[in-house]
Structures are given as C-alpha cells and as structure tokens.
Write a structure and sequence with these properties.
single chain, 416 residues, alpha/beta, Aspartate Aminotransferase, domain 1, Aspartate Aminotransferase, domain 2, 2 domains, seven-stranded mixed sheet, four-stranded antiparallel sheet, 37% helix, globular
Amino acid sequence: MEFGKEIRSEFPIFSSVGNQNLAYLDNAATTQKPKKVIDALVDFYSTSNANIGRGIYKLSMEAHQQYEDSRTTVAEFLNAKSANEIVFTKGTTEAINFIAVSYLEPNLEQGDEVLVTGMEHHSNLLPWQRACERTGAKLVVVESDEHGEVSLERMEESINSKTKFLAISHISNVLGVMNPVKEIIRKAHIHKIPVLVDGAQSVAHCKVDVQDLGADFYCLSGHKMYGPTGIGVLYINQAFQEGMLPFLVGGGVANGVEYQRITKYLPTPFCFEAGTPNLAGAVGLASAIEFLQEADMADLHKHELKLYNEMLAILEGQDNAIVYGNPANISSIVSFNIKDIHPYDIGNLLNSHNIAVRTGVHCAIPFVDSMNLLGTVRASFGLYNDLDEVHRLGDVLKQAKPGDWTRNRPNVRYLE
C-alpha cells in the first residue's frame, strides 16, 4: 500500500467541497474513513439490516453472521485466543468503565491501591478514581519523567502488597510516547496484579498482539483506526471472565428470566452486550481492520516516522518553538508550543490555512499541569499525510504572532 497522496483518493472527505486542500493532522482525535469502510456501512443498512438474536428469519440470521464474523476479525487482528474474548463497546471510554464497574469494584477493599500513570487520558483515569472513591481504595499515580515517559523502575517502586490493579496507556495521546507495556505487564504479573491497557492510540500505528503483551484487558476505539464512531472493543482475557457481572443488563444477556428467580446470564461475550448492538459499526470496524491489514505496519511506521522527523527538524529550526516528549520514542504525534503565543492562537492561524490540528489539554489535564503548561499544539499523523503538509504547517508557523487569546485571555483554557 502506498501512503500519503497516493492513498488520499480512497478517502472521500478529501475530495469533498472545501476539503480538497485540507491538511488533516488531527488523527489522534479521530481518523478519516476510507471508502471501503463507508461502503461497508451503507451495504449493511442497504442489504442486511435486521436485529440479531431475536429473529429466526433469513435477514436476521445474515446480520447475526456478519456481526459474529466481525468479532472473529477483531480477535484475529489482536491475536486473541478466542473470539469469545472480544466484547463490542461504544469505544475505549465505555470499555474502561466496564472493567472498573464489573471487575475492579467488586474486587477492591478499603486500603487497596490502584496504579495509573501520570500521562493518562481522563478516560483511563476517572473510572479508576471513582472506583477508589466507592470502595475506599487509594489511587496511586506513577509519575512520568521529564520526557513524559514512565520507567520500569518507577513502576516497580510503586508496586506493593496493597496493589490490586494497574491501568496504563499503550501510547500517550498528548506526547505520543510509547510505554514499555509488555515489560510492565510482566512485572505486574509477578505480583499477580491484573493490567488494563488503553490501546486507543496504538492500534492504527503498530501491530498489537494481546497474547504477546500478556494483557489482561485491552481497549480500543474504531474511529481512531479508520473505522466508524460509536464502536469499540474490550478484550477480556478468558481467565478473568468467570464471575464477572455484566456492566449493563437487558435484552440478549439471559435466558429463562423470571420475577423471583436469580437470573442466569448467557456465556461471554453475549452476557456483556445488552440490548441491540452497533451492528453496522462492528461491520465497519471489521472493514477498517481489513483496510489496515492491506498496509504493512512496519512500512506505515516508517512513513509516520519520516513525517515526524521532518516536523521535528522544522520546529527545531525555529527559535521560538518548544517540542515536548522524547524524539527517540515518538513517531505519529508532535506536541509543541510557540513561545509567548497561546496554543489556541496557533490553532486558529493554522485553521485559516486549512490545516487541522488539536490545541489544548487533550483530555489529560493532570498530565499537562504536571508539565506546567497551559496546553499544547498537537499534530498527529496518519497514513494519508505527506511531507508537503508538514512543510505547509512549518511555513504557516513562521507567520505566528500573538492573537486574541494571547492578548486578552493568556491563561484561559476553553474546554478543559
């Protein structure tokens, strides 16, 4: 598969009115969708739309088969032992809340400790914080170093006999640094500590093998890997499934329901998917996975690294630019600021030149606060980006000057 301009023709948004010259560099927030994925959604609604598990008729059974085939595709993509380890969710946020409520809270007692890192997205922080509040457990934060990285040594120092759970992002959504999750999981397992990995930022950029990592729980969002919004995945290692209660209950999770009898739930994963699932979303996610599998992930990594290195060289050549993170441990995200200019003014300037980036705290306020920053400008790359777009961004940054935010609201965050 060719990357950059050669593949943009497969993404309809780039040929739509007003977007022909769009430099879309906000892929860490969401990716654009290839025609293959859009067609899969349209085709499902046009030819196969029916509810599953409730109809003994051809259309319903066809829809059910497509849904379960999608589960198999995800399982193979992540190298899960079984498709029954794959639970469809709305996204990473719901998946993490699922584990916090259905697994962690029932297993926590007052005085227990839950480890998170200091770089986590709010979605991999707030559910654990709430679980601790409800149970009397303690949330322990393993802080990152000056490069925004979490070392094995700091993680080991934080583990003790009270530690009952560990949650960590595979790749930081703020800086793009990759955590040594395989080694951290191995250290945690020595102490019999289960580990959840937030993979929202990793699956579109590197090969993920949950068995090789040793992850107990792994979460991802379809919309960050060229798939639809509203669909995500929670991988639950089969060793942890027994005894877990459903996060939601309702239609499709039980048989033989009676008023006065304790409900017996269906086997996993069906007991974890109450109500009508996002059928088209699952089919679209499977299509996105097939699209990604057509690319060589090693070649994609090289492509994104080339863009990153060029962006880094441009910023390092600009006296008033500040880049955050460890350049040796980043490939798809560049987080930076221009001295004495509010990040929002930079975002507005780039927008005026049809360049889309993310500005602010990136749903990681404690992490950004730990770096004593108001926020950052974040450019994040995907397989359709190219060097011309990086050069356009660099050229526009030379025009940067204080704007309304810098002059009138220099210390204000719009949406934290």
